[in-house]
Amino acid sequence: MFECNSHRSDGLPVAETYMFVDSHCHLDRLSEQTHGGDIAATLAAARAAHVSQFLAVAVSLEEMPQLAAIARAHQDVVISAGMHPLHSPAEKEGAESEPSVADIKDAAEQFGAVAIGETGLDYHYRDSVPVDVQHERFKRHLIAARELDLPVIVHTREARQETLALLREYSDPRVGGVLHCFTEDLAMAREAVRLGFYISLSGIITFRNAEPLRELARQLPLDRLLIETDSPYLAPVPYRGKPNEPAWVVKVAECIANERGISVDEVAMQTTANFYQLFRAAAPDAPVHVKEALAQSGLL
Fold it and tell me: Which Gene3D superfamilies match (predicted)?
């Protein structure tokens, strides 16, 4: 079986690394198979693996109160506000079911979101939500992000040119965002970086058939990469087929380190710095040891 093995150039065990950030997870959707569905236990397991920050990402505005409650209970959790391109919103009597720019902004401000999203375009399941609806929804999120000066979390699948076109027209390159759980090609990644975006890699990079993503991990500048789990989805090798969890973001970092021939610590340090440079609203509340380490290294 293929395995994206890791190494560390400093010879230390991977467990010594203490700088990981899970830049995209869905803590309100944990499987019962993951620590009994207990969020506190799941986060404790991740902290034991040296994951020190979590971005809990919204897929609907309806779930914002639940995400905000999780963030209040756990100081190392920050949240986003937005609606997934494939989410079907509940009908609101006497009102449009699609969120307006004002709705998105209000949710972000009310619940203290550090980003807008996830939003974007997904043409793989275009029959689920019509393309024209996805386009309008994405545009509204981009406008909200621009007006709030917040980065945007982008989901894109089989819609490369359309996604890039909307980013060019409506996103703010000074603020940027991230193309999360990236599975498209290197050309799209490079254009997104040119537009001010980061590229986030998930457990998919460890899959046997993901050589194009591993090539992307080798080619893109390390200072434009983030790591994520997208848990409870897409568990990395050797956990593939199980519900994913934030602790396993370490496997993504290990794979990137292996592909680039560098230490896991270097990947952890740089991707953590990248996270706080992008999600600036999260930086003041970063763990003290993380801020100190990044400051000493000149990365933050």
Answer: Metal-dependent hydrolases
What is the SS3 assignment for 272? Answer: helix
Percentage of residues of the chain with pLDDT beyond 70: 92
Residue 96: which pLDDT band, with cuts at 50, 70 and 90? low
Cβ within 8 Å of residue 135, ≥6 positions away: 121, 162, 166
Looking up residue 210, the CATH number of its domain turns out to be: 3.20.20.140
Indicate whether 14 belongs to any domain: no
Distance CA 36, CA 28 (A): 13
Average pLDDT over every residue of 122-141: 92
Rounded CA-CA distance 93/109 in Å is 24
pTM beyond 0.85, yes or no: yes
Q: Residue 298 has which token pair?
A: 């000149």
Q: What pLDDT is recorded for position 116?
A: 99
Residue 11 domain-assigned? no
Tokens 């949240």, located at residue: 79
- pLDDT surpasses 80 at 113: yes
**What's phi and psi for 154, nearest 5 deg?**
-110, 130
Find the helix or strand (DSSP H, E) in which 238 lies. none
For range 81-101, the mean pLDDT: 78
Outline where the chain has alpha helix (H). Answer: 39-48, 64-73, 101-111, 131-148, 160-170, 186-194, 211-219, 249-260, 264-278, 288-297
The answer to whether residue 181 sits within a structural domain is yes
In whole angstroms, what is the distance from residue 70 CA to residue 66 CA?
6
Could you tell me the two tokens for 28? Answer: 């309100």
pLDDT of the residue at 216 = 97
Q: Is residue 6 part of a domain?
A: no
Number of structural domains (the chain) is 1
